[in-house]
């Protein structure tokens, strides 16, 4: 290694350590230990271009150990992505471009928001799946327009988390040879040596998953790291796992190889000692030698040339395959929301009682006929979730053109993989499981909401209507859990029209994920349901009075119950309005005028009806209102018996309204 290259590697270490020291917060251990990996990969083996960070055929890099963000920011600065020295100086400060963990769509060049360890590993699998599917869709002999790698770097913590095992098991099954995992094996965790809790043979585990495994004994040997990366690329049948033996905090004499190097600043004395030990030529903080910048400019030019070559290839591809070029544009364009809104077939009414999970299945197939880039599946529950696109094959090692995905029983990894597919670009993805298992999805749904990814979650068997499977399978608190998340639309539709509205909202969304909460039991089409459901809440059956005596607010299967209770009360001379509220989140986005029109403030007699926990309904019923909701877990019995047992019948709803009205008098 030349002296310039040595200084270029150390530039990553020193900049990262200085960022953390200035912020008095951060994790210097990973950046200092992994700097040679980063330099070798980004400089000599990865196709990327800081002048065009969104180049479609770039190699993707995900830092799964997101606490090592200072290393990533150093790379983005040195490779010309637009991060300035001042940005580095503002590390972890309010409104800076260099937050504590990398944030997608906030910092140019960050491919994924990685906070929870292991999440980046699973999202990388999704990116690799997207690459293989799009390659199968578009590549022609001599025109490999989709041909790039997904690299992910993580450490011991990422491999301890179960999500990585779930995802890698699937990656190996699928033979995702364009996925290259680099394992920063420094044998240190926050509490000390990994031997206290992590002694398994990781290489054997990865081999069992179906990965090629490669070992690099010296994490400072760039040539050996480079040879390992090229060996990984040469295997065209398996994903690759490269273990690199590193030392956490490398270069700092007092901290190197210790747990204290992981998550605290080096300290000024130790920072200066590291500079001396690494023979860093600059004493001034955040000062990088000109020859180092020149080295990085030369390395960056490699990526510029790679993109220029691809642009020529793609232009020739478009000229020779104009129909494919048109399809490419369709895959990468937003959904035509106006055309879908006016599509009569999509909005066609269903004339018989049908479960909303089945209605959703019909809509998935209608959408597949309209949109070319649907790509999704279920966690081994497609027959129950109704998520299979009929007439389409399944994505597999020998058939990357398949549009349906078998995720296996891997809900957590599935939701992260969906994030990766969406982050890659070019595809609209959906995933499915039982609603109660949204507990397994939630951490990755949260990341999707933070990143603004329009992933669709098909969550069926939405309530005690699950029936005989009992309380372990009957969601009670999950609606409140998902509704509590910012930037997600949670739909619980009442019939065919509302289910269409939910899918319309999901598929036309650009920055918000959507949860479709769907029934196992049949729902009768409602006379008053309409596209007004797109506003989140609307009057499905009105009072004949200008000012109704009360308002029943319901969702899903309980909307019909509210209408039945309305009839009982009407016979008694009590004239109430029934509001269907399929999506609280979208209702909250409406104008105050519209919200007051649907829920007039002077109508204080309100009852909310929903077969879930009552948490969250207070804002709509006020201090005077009541709920007919679940206050306990469910039970094992036929669904009809359970709805009766827990008070979900028209008489109980009517009685709740009577009591509220009496209390107000």
From TrEMBL:
Its cofactor is Mg(2+); Ca(2+); Mn(2+); Co(2+). The record marks 27, 262 as: Important for catalytic activity. SMART domains: Transket_pyr (SM00861). Mg(2+) binds at residues 156, 186, 188. Substrate binds at residues 27, 262, 357, 384, 461, 469, 473, 520. Residues 354-526 form the Transketolase-like pyrimidine-binding domain. It comes from the Bacteria. Binds 1 Mg(2+) ion per subunit. Can also utilize other divalent metal cations, such as Ca(2+), Mn(2+) and Co(2+). Signal peptide: none annotated. GO terms for biological process: pentose-phosphate shunt. Thiamine diphosphate binds at residues 67, 115-117, 157, 186, 262, 437. Homodimer. Catalyzes the transfer of a two-carbon ketol group from a ketose donor to an aldose acceptor, via a covalent intermediate with the cofactor thiamine pyrophosphate. This is Transketolase. It comes from Anaerovibrio lipolyticus. The lineage of its organism: Bacteria, Bacillati, Bacillota, Negativicutes, Selenomonadales.
């Amino acid at each position: 290694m030349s002296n310039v290259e040595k200084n270029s590697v150390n530039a990553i270490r020193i900049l990262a350590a200085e960022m953390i020291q200035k912020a008095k917060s951060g994790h210097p251990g990973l950046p200092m230990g992994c700097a040679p990996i980063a330099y070798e990969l980004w400089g000599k083996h990865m196709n990327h271009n800081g002048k065009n960070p969104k180049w479609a055929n770039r190699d993707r890099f995900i830092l799964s150990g997101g606490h090592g963000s200072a290393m990533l920011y150093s790379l983005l600065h040195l490779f010309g992505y637009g991060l300035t020295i001042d940005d580095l100086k503002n590390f972890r400060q309010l409104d800076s471009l260099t937050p504590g963990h990398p944030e997608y769509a906030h910092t140019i060049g960050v491919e994924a928001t990685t906070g929870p360890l292991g999440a980046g590993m699973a999202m990388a699998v999704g990116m690799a799946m997207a690459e293989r599917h799009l390659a199968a869709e578009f590549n022609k002999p001599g025109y490999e327009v989709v041909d790039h790698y997904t690299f992910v770097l993580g450490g011991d913590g990422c491999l301890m988390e179960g999500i990585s095992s779930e995802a890698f098991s699937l990656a190996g099954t699928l033979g995702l040879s364009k996925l290259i995992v680099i394992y920063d094996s420094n044998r240190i965790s926050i509490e000390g040596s990994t031997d206290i809790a992590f002694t398994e043979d990781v290489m054997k585990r990865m081999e069992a998953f179906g990965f090629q495994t490669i070992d690099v004994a010296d994490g400072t040997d760039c040539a050996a790291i480079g040879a390992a990366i090229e060996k990984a690329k040469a295997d065209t049948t398996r994903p690759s796992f490269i273990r690199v033996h590193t030392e956490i905090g490398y270069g700092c004499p007092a901290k190197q190889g210790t747990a204290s190097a992981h998550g605290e600043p080096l300290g000024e004395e130790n920072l200066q000692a590291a500079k001396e030990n690494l023979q860093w030529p600059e004493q001034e903080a955040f000062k990088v030698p000109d020859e180092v910048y020149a080295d990085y400019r030369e390395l960056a030019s490699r990526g510029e040339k790679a993109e220029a070559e691809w642009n020529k290839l793609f232009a020739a591809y478009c000229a020779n395959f104009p129909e494919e070029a048109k399809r490419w544009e369709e895959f990468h364009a937003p959904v035509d929301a106006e055309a879908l809104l006016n599509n009569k077939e999509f909005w066609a009414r269903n004339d018989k009682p049908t479960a909303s999970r089945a209605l959703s299945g019909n809509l998935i197939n209608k959408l597949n006929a309209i949109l070319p880039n649907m790509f999704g599946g279920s966690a081994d529950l497609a027959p129950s979730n109704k998520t299979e696109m009929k007439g389409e094959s399944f994505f597999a090692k020998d058939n990357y053109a398949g549009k349906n995905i078998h995720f296996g029983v891997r809900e957590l990894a599935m939701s992260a993989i969906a994030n990766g597919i969406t982050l890659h670009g070019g595809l609209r993805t959906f995933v499915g499981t039982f609603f109660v298992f949204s507990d397994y999805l939630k951490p990755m749904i949260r990341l999707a909401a933070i990143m603004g990814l329009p992933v669709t979650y098909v969550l069926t068997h939405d309530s005690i209507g699950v029936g005989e499977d009992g309380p372990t399978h009957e969601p009670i608190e999950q609606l409140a859990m998902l509704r509590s998340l910012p930037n997600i639309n949670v739909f619980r539709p009442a019939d065919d029209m509302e289910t269409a509205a939910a899918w319309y909202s999901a598929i036309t969304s650009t920055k918000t994920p959507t949860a479709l909460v769907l029934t196992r039991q049949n729902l009768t089409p409602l006379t008053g349901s309409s596209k007004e459901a797109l506003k989140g809440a609307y009057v499905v059956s009105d009072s004949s009075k200008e000012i109704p005596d009360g308002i029943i607010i319901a969702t899903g299967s309980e909307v019909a119950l509210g209408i039945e209770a309305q009839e009982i009360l009407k016979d008694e001379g009590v004239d109430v309005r029934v509001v269907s509220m399929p999506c609280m989140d979208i209702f909250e986005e409406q104008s105050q005028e519209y919200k007051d029109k649907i829920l007039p403030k002077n109508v204080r007699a309100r009852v909310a009806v929903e077969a879930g926990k009552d948490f969250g309904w207070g804002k709509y019923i006020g201090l005077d209102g009541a709920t007919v909701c679940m206050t306990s877990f469910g039970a094992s019995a036929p669904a009809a018996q359970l709805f009766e047992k827990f008070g979900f019948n028209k008489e109980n709803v009517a009685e709740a309204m009577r009591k509220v009205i009496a209390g107000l008098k």
